User: Which sequence fits this backbone?
């Protein structure tokens, strides 16, 4: 007669001493650091820090008057800014490996239905973050810089500082990358049972207001960047509700695991 597996048996033999956990964590961190280091070395060889900087600065340079350039107000800025950009690019390129190491560290302690929940979320959240960054770079930057330069009097020669520009770019990348995680947050909240689909739908009008408040806080005080962040957040919220309904149906715990 078939006997359902006990969920405790599923994790039997996976317990490890605390010190062994620390050793494994160290090994995973080293492997993640090596992946970042390899990407950093490859980027230093090709295309090089200067080319990466030119690529990142292209949206702003394109909006400047003919002959306009960015300036460095610090002695070490011409060295440090391209290096920071290269480090950021290396981390983003190595992110799949970093996340895989995180997954390999936590996976042994998860039940099978939890693994089915985590892996799709990790992959989709990574893709959504990259999509948010790409949306910011290819669309938002161009529109925002043109809008800002359109208000500049002709007597003003725009010469942005490269370090200030890098800080602006990083903050915008983080803002848009995290904003595009809205569907993941909605799915997790619904899957954990913290909120129901009906409550998420009822919260829709409040979320629209919240999205515009967040956009006003994390973006520059111009209407273009605020709309460019708030509107996708509202759309992604709707996508999250739709995806949560599908995700819940396909990742419910088996009866024997859910009863424990």
Assistant:
């Amino acid at each position: 007669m078939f006997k359902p597996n006990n969920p405790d048996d599923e994790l039997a033999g996976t317990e490890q001493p605390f010190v062994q956990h620390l050793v494994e964590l160290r090994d995973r961190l080293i492997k993640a650091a090596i992946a970042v280091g390899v990407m950093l070395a490859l980027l230093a060889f090709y295309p090089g820090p200067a080319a990466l900087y030119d690529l990142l600065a292209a949206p702003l340079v394109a909006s400047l008057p003919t002959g306009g350039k960015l300036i460095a107000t610090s002695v070490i800025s011409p060295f440090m800014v391209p290096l920071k950009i290269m480090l950021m690019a290396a981390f983003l390129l190595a992110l799949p490996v970093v996340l895989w190491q995180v997954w390999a560290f936590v996976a042994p302690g998860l039940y099978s239905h939890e693994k089915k929940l985590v892996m799709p979320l990790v992959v989709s959240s990574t893709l959504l973050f990259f999509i948010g960054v790409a949306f910011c770079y290819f669309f938002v930057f161009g529109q925002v810089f043109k809008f800002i330069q359109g208000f500049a009097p002709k007597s003003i020669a725009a010469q942005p500082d490269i370090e200030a520009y890098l800080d602006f770019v990083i903050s915008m990348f983080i803002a848009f990358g995290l904003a595009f995680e809205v569907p993941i947050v909605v799915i997790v909240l619904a899957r954990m049972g913290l909120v129901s689909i009906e409550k998420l739908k009822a919260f829709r009008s409040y979320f629209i207001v919240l999205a515009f408040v967040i956009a006003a806080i994390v973006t520059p005080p111009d209407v273009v960047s605020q709309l460019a962040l708030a509107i996708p957040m509202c759309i992604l919220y709707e996508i999250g509700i739709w995806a949560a309904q599908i995700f819940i149906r396909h990742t419910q715990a088996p009866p024997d695991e859910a009863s424990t």
Remarks:
- Residues 16-258 form one domain.
- Residues 140 and 153 are 23 Å apart (CA to CA).
- The chain has a mean pLDDT of 85.
- The two ends are 22 Å apart (CA to CA).
